């Protein structure tokens, strides 16, 4: 069990981050309502960020148990899955928060940009098993659970393009196209040599009937495609045709 004070340290770290971020946002985006004072404006931003933090925390918890539970079920039918190792790695990882000093250090390093995967010592094997669980949720069309699972995975390791793609694919199933676009943009930043995230962005804007954005995304995707090794000619032809069609609809 964590020492008394660990949760307070983590909550204090989150509050400090929210206050700093709210101050920065308030400075960059002054209130549009002239009757709203700068202090009230900043407090409102803090409140909105706090509400989102509560939502994010719940989504991470739900997402972890979703993909962890699926892996446990899959392991019953597949003896190649070492669920015992995964379970032990997860227990060891979350035991990292057992002391106040450890919680303070981890929180500080996370704010500096370190991934929670590295901070908690979650192995590549464990992460791939959790990803397998999340992907199984998409394949079985359990989209709410899949979205939460990929939300958890992108929080644990934000450098994995596949995790962001999974989050985007899940969001699309709800019609959350702007959320999906954000996820695909993150996937693109993780894997700039792949044109697929940008193609998925174009697909989202197509569903939103925003053909100027569709055209921009397709042209970017085609530029990436042209610089790729062993490019698929059929994909290049498809992109060219879609660009022509998008220009006609702009």
Keywords:
single chain; 250 residues; mainly alpha; Serine Threonine Protein Phosphatase 5, Tetratricopeptide repeat; 78% helix; 0% strand; disordered N terminus
- Which spans have pLDDT < 50 for at least 5 consecutive residues? 1-6
**CATH 2nd-level architecture of the domain at 159-250:** Alpha Horseshoe
User: Would you report the number of β strands?
Assistant: 0
CATH topology of the domain at 159-250: Serine Threonine Protein Phosphatase 5, Tetratricopeptide repeat
Give the structural class: mainly alpha
> For the CA atoms, what is the radius of gyration?
21 Å
CATH superfamily of the domain at 159-250: Tetratricopeptide repeat domain
Distance between the termini: 60 Å
CATH top level label of the domain at 159-250: Mainly Alpha
Oligomer: single chain
Number of DSSP helical runs: 12
Task: Based on Cα principal axes, name the global outline.
Answer: globular
**SS strand fraction:** under 5%
Share of helical residues: over 70%
